[in-house]
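Example for tutorial group B:
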């Protein structure tokens, strides 16, 4: 499956907000948004200067940028993101909130939100390498959608890995969303409820995404 492999800091700079794609680094002065808070490219630092004034972005531009922000936050490519949106439309309730709920329920996001990875990209890699099980069965599909009651655990053979031994020491540093529960000693997480709109850890305007696909 295709995956963006370029410098992720450019994605944050392009969207103008921190997407926390590099985990703890995003919280330090090394973050690219702290040092270069302007769009990438040769004209990024001079945009709005010189001849003329910066134009007010159109409605379409705002919708596009918000769609890209959501997609890049969760590390989803365009075709897959369209499928998520189509599924969200068929679900009862608000389409935008349904979309965010589906993205939050991805297994790689659950691993990240449990604090078992520093970023969603790292969580995706850990899942692909087969370090996790869902309800006792090995699961190496990052896009797997968890359900209420599902138990996500680090596999026994992986608990002896130096990465997870160190990870146990740092669990608890990141706040846990209300819809998830975690036992730090056994590295076992459980989906206690469906994620609510307020559980999203990034500032997003999902209504603009709905407007983008409703054109």
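The residue assignment follows.
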């Amino acid at each position: 499956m295709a995956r963006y492999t370029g410098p992720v800091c450019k994605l944050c700079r392009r969207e103008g907000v921190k997407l926390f794609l590099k985990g703890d680094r995003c919280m330090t002065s090394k973050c690219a948004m702290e040092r270069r808070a302007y769009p990438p490219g040769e004209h990024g630092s001079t945009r709005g200067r010189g001849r003329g004034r910066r134009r007010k972005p159109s409605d379409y531009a705002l919708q596009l940028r918000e769609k890209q922000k959501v997609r890049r936050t969760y590390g989803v490519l365009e075709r897959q993101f369209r499928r998520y949106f189509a599924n969200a439309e068929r679900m009862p309730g608000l389409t935008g909130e349904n979309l965010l709920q589906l993205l939050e329920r991805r297994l790689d996001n659950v691993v990240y939100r449990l604090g078992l990875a520093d970023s969603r990209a790292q969580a995706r890699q850990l899942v692909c390498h087969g370090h996790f099980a869902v309800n006792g069965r090995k699961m190496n599909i990052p896009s797997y959608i968890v359900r209420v009651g599902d138990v996500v655990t680090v596999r026994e053979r992986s608990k002896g890995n130096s990465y997870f031994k160190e990870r146990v020491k740092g669990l608890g540093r990141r706040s846990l969303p209300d819809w998830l529960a975690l036992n730090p000693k056994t590295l076992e997480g459980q989906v206690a409820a469906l994620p609510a709109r307020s559980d999203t850890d990034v500032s997003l305007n999902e209504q603009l995404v709905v407007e983008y696909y409703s054109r």
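The chain has two domains: 9-41+56-103+202-213, 106-193. Compare this with the pattern of hydrophobic and polar residues in the output above.
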